[in-house]
Design goal:
The protein has 204 residues and is α/β, with parallel strands linked by helices. The chain is built from 8 helices and 6 strands. Helix content is 34%, strand content 14%.
């Protein structure tokens, strides 16, 4: 019998509000803007041996605002822009559904829309994820609850909707940080990567 070796450490990232500045139903490449420091933070995760996987709800598809092809195009654009920082995202997983506001085939009660964990399980089919060394970082309640449910540690960022959640006394995350830069520093420090911690100043 072949046993799967759960050896890959992964940082799951929300996209909108975490990697890029939150804009309602973003899909145009010309409207895309990184959260300051995010490209360098992602590159630091790459060089620290983490797989970087985006897990994102894209209800704009369900509502008919844009298409799945638009999502794929923007995701490819993000990796194109990250290349300038010697960074990359290993994979993107997205949910195009909404149980109430969805149109046509997208109006379903799916298992992939965060806080459900279907997208994490899909990633698990491809990657040998060591949950003990993996994290979920996001700006929304669904990101944190999904990460918790899947069994990884979580960091809420104050960018996007995170600051509002903090004001609402949401406290189900493991750590809270100002942005992705600080989140990466915190998780590397927690994992005992002192070299990365000393090098924190050049992430911003």
């Amino acid at each position: 019998m072949n046993y799967k070796s759960y050896s890959e450490k992964v940082v799951f990232l929300d996209r909108d509000g975490t990697i890029n500045i939150e804009k309602n139903y973003l899909y145009k490449t010309e409207d895309f803007q990184f959260v300051p420091g995010a490209p360098q933070a992602i590159a630091r995760l790459n060089t620290s041996g983490y797989k970087v996987i985006v897990i994102t709800n894209q209800a704009g598809v369900a509502r008919g605002y844009y298409t799945e092809a638009d999502v794929l195009r923007l995701n490819a654009y993000i990796n194109h822009k990250l290349a300038a920082y010697k960074g990359h995202i290993d994979d993107f997983y997205y949910c195009p559904h909404h149980p109430i506001a969805g149109v046509g085939k997208y109006k379903i009660e799916c298992n992939c829309r965060k806080p459900k964990i279907g997208l994490f399980l899909e990633a698990e089919e491809k990657y040998s994820i060591d949950k003990n060394k993996s994290w979920m970082i996001g700006d929304n309640k669904g990101d944190i609850l999904a990460g918790k449910k899947y069994g990884v540690r979580t960091i809420l960022v104050r960018t996007g909707y995170g600051s509002q959640l903090e004001k609402e006394k949401f406290r189900q995350f493991d750590l809270i940080s100002n942005d992705l830069t600080e989140a990466v520093f915190m998780l590397l420090e927690r994992e005992g990567d002192s070299g990365q911690a000393e090098d924190y100043s050049d992430i911003r």
